Amino acid sequence: MLTTAAALPATDPSPIETPTPVETPTPAVMTPTEAEAAAAQLAPRLFDQAAATDVEGGFPTQEFGWLHAAGLLTAALPASLGGAGLHAPAATLPLLRVLQHVGRGNLAVGRVFEGHTNALLLIQQLATAAQVAGYAADARAGRLFGVWNTENPADGVHLEDLPNGRYRLRGAKTFASGAGQLARPLITGALPHGQGWQLFVLPADAQPPALDRSFWQPLGMRATASFRADLTGLEIGPEDLIGPPNAYYQQPAFSGGAIRFAAVQLGGAEAVFDETRDFLRSLGRTDDPYQRQRLGEMAILLESGRQWLRGAAENAARPSAATPEGAEATVAYANMMRTAIETISLEMLRLAERCVGARGLLRPQPFERLHRDLTHYLRQPAPDGALADVGRFVLEGKTF
């Protein structure tokens, strides 16, 4: 059942709808290629359902059940843990294509799924073997992960020492995508005594944060449930801490991960292209030379985005990425790629508007939703700084 913000109190310590792991057998271990094929097959189904979940306060719970049944919630795990091996640098291109297909189906699902994938990758990178095994079991059971990092400086998350070695939490996160639905959000918080920033997993199904749903009144991406989540009074233990202090900000993983959200964005741009083409076909406008010209431009943009995905994957898979010089190059390339995908997506939207006109922007046509969702999702942090970093890199005579 979908839940709207109007039907709920603005602040509520309980989840919107307590996520219940989907009771399906553990999917057979997939190869990266099979994971990509599963995502491609699921994309049209996600697209057909997207309009139904496009409400503030809603969440695509059913769609994540489909992802779980398809084996995609564990795809970023190694085969030994029931995954498809998309965690490996050599599998970066299949990973990006999986994200692109999910974004093509529904950008709101793609946003939360990318956060789930990001959390699993960070846990494998930083956690102990026992922690990785435990959280992999959670993923196999259908529990959702995510990363909550954004906060207001005045009331950000802090960990406070308790006499028994545990920590009491104080403060809140904003843009907490999947709030009320994620069972295992991966969160950053300030350690006591200026010891730095610490990643930890909150067992949110047992200790749900208080949610301010009034925070999320967005232009697009309504169904991501990106509320304000207040963690004040909740407790975690040493077993919930992931990695050493400040590990979350290590490069190239921190900035280099931008290639994943850019892949989801490209999926949204591909959906715009597909629907524009189908709309013109339905009107019999395929012989119009100006429409053909615009579709030609859109086809070039889409293929350019696909080439950027290939380049980003090749860059991330190079052995030199593990060196300081290679890490710097990986970050610079990721910043180029995310900037290029943003430009491609914005131009795709402009051309689509010209193609479909005012008639095409009326519901139940999907363009109005696609336009809102993609425009909103393109607003990622520090775009100017990302581009300036590329300029600095090349001005210093460095190469990729």
UniProtKB/TrEMBL annotation:
InterPro entries: Acyl-CoA_DH_C (IPR013107), Acyl-CoA_Oxase/DH_mid-dom_sf (IPR046373), AcylCo_DH-like_C (IPR036250), AcylCoA_DH/ox_N (IPR013786), AcylCoA_DH/ox_N_sf (IPR037069), AcylCoA_DH/oxidase_NM_dom_sf (IPR009100)
Ranges of biased composition (kind: Low complexity): 1-15
Entry keyword set: Oxidoreductase
Keyword Transport included in the entry's annotation: no
Domain Acyl-CoA dehydrogenase C-terminal: 261-375
Pfam families per record: Acyl-CoA_dh_2, Acyl-CoA_dh_N
Top-rank taxon: Bacteria
Region of interest called Disordered, as start-end residue ranges on this chain: 1-23
SUPFAM superfamilies linked: Acyl-CoA dehydrogenase C-terminal domain-like, Acyl-CoA dehydrogenase NM domain-like
Residue ranges annotated for the Acyl-CoA dehydrogenase/oxidase N-terminal domain, each copy included: 41-136
PANTHER family: ACYL-COA DEHYDROGENASE (PTHR43884), ISOVALERYL-COA DEHYDROGENASE, MITOCHONDRIAL-RELATED (PTHR43884:SF12)
The protein's name: Alkylation response protein AidB-like acyl-CoA dehydrogenase
Biological classification of the source: Bacteria, Pseudomonadati, Bacteroidota, Cytophagia, Cytophagales
